[in-house]
Specification:
Elements lengths: L4 E4 L10 H15 L4 E4 L9 H9 L1 E9 L5 E9 L4 E4 H5 L15 H12 L4 E5 L10 H6 L3 E3 L5 E2 L11 E3 L11 E6 L11 H5 L7 H22 L11 H13 L2 E4 H8 L2 H5 L4 E4 L3 E2 L8 H8 L5 E5 L1 E2 L3 H5 L3 E5 L6 H6 L1 H18 L5
Parallel strand pairs: 1-2, 1-12, 5-6, 6-10, 10-11, 12-14, 13-15, 14-16
Antiparallel strand pairs: 3-4, 4-5, 7-8, 7-9
Helix pairs in contact: 1-14, 7-8
């Protein structure tokens, strides 16, 4: 099989390799087998980790760092971007992401640091914001973010506090009169990679709480807190945000952004593929290579893989992933060929040397392509 042009458009491998690192590693293996091939590296994100780098790479700009509170209340450095057009590109995974804490803290983790990141960008003069909210450690409905922006939450005894997932049910009143005035001067667009409502069986706590370390009992408690918060948002703002697709993104941060920032929620992968002009680049390609840490059911709904499959047209797509937890027969309906970095070894061993095993999987993929007999 001859390859004249290949698009390499992977997601990050969460917690191990950035999307740029993945693209670079795959490109080396493509050129090792097809040395004359034209490579277009297009690191992709869907609103989660790596979104700032992807967007700044696509439209130009610079990155900066601010000191913020981590989800578990430690001082950390969090990067953000200011694009060439002046828009601030903020990634909540940088400040309040699951990889920015020590251990799991499903009941106490907070988005306060994300609010501090917004303040840092406001201080630099930004008034146009793109908020990328995937990869969160939190289930606080955006209350921490709002508190960092000057919103005051009080309980029945009129005591002020910064709510977290475990204390949402204690909120009795919301006072946003002291919120940073610059927020009202700004426009916020939220890129999210899921369409879950705020609460319920398809909501933030039940679907994503276990990934953040929540037990079955804690999931139920968090969901009850989000129900309470949803009712408060509805009564205070006069709008029902809870059922809006994406309200449950990032532990309910989607709803918080709509409520406090009057933000518009958009599909992260759709927006980024458009920024990168992905369809145009695919027009004369022979192959698209994507990748992510784990392929599962969620990969085909609003994630990088779903967008790449949709927008690649008739160009064949292969995915080089860490692990594939999806039925082979089901993969065939997407005409998707998958190569696993963890094939033949344990996930733990794969994670110990992710670059090595990703390269091995990429080389196998290219040798397979060279024989002209793709396999799943």
């Amino acid at each position: 099989m001859s390859l004249n042009k290949v698009i390499i458009a992977p997601d990050s491998f969460k917690g191990t390799l950035t999307s740029k690192q993945v693209a670079d590693l795959i490109a080396c293996e493509v050129l090792a087998v097809f040395p004359d091939c034209i490579i277009e590296k297009m690191p992709i994100a869907d609103g989660g980790e790596g979104s700032v780098d992807t967007i700044i790479s696509a439209i130009g700009g610079d990155t900066y760092e601010a000191q913020v509170l981590s989800p578990d209340d430690r001082q950390i450095g969090a990067s953000f971007g200011i694009a060439a057009n002046g828009a601030a590109i903020l990634e909540m995974a940088q400040s309040s992401g699951i990889t920015r804490q020590s251990g799991f803290h499903p009941m106490t983790s907070s988005t306060f640091g994300f609010g501090q990141l917004i303040v840092a960008a406001l201080d630099m003069g930004a008034r146009e914001f793109i908020l990328c909210i995937g990869g969160s450690a939190t289930t606080d409905g955006g209350c921490g973010m709002a508190a960092a922006l000057g919103v005051v939450f009080t309980d029945e005894q009129e005591r002020g506090f910064v709510p977290c997932g475990g204390t949402l049910g204690e909120i009795a009143h919301i006072d946003d009169s002291g919120m940073d005035e610059r927020v009202r001067e700004s426009r916020f667009t939220v890129m999210c990679d899921v369409d879950n409502p705020l609460y319920g069986k398809s909501g933030a706590a039940y679907v994503y709480g276990p990934q953040k370390g929540a037990s079955r009992e804690q999931v139920q408690f968090l969901d009850e807190g989000l129900r309470h918060l949803g009712a408060l948002y509805s009564s205070h703002f006069g709008k029902d945000f809870a059922g809006t697709p994406g309200a449950g993104a990032a532990g309910g941060l989607g709803a918080g952004c709509m409520a406090f920032l009057e933000a518009e929620l958009v599909s992260g992968i759709d927006a980024i593929l458009k920024l990168c002009d992905f369809k145009k680049h695919c027009a004369d390609a022979d192959l698209v290579i994507t990748g992510e840490g784990k392929i599962d059911d969620q990969s085909f709904y609003g994630k990088v893989l779903s967008g790449v499959l949709r927008d690649s047209g008739d160009v064949p797509v292969i995915s080089i992933c860490g692990v594939c937890d999806y039925d082979d027969a089901a993969l065939k309906q997407y005409d998707l060929t998958v190569f696993e970095a963890s094939e033949g070894i344990s996930p733990e061993e794969c994670l110990s040397e992710p670059a090595k095993y990703l390269s091995i999987a990429a080389r196998k993929a290219m040798l397979t392509m060279n024989k002209g007999c793709p396999e799943s």
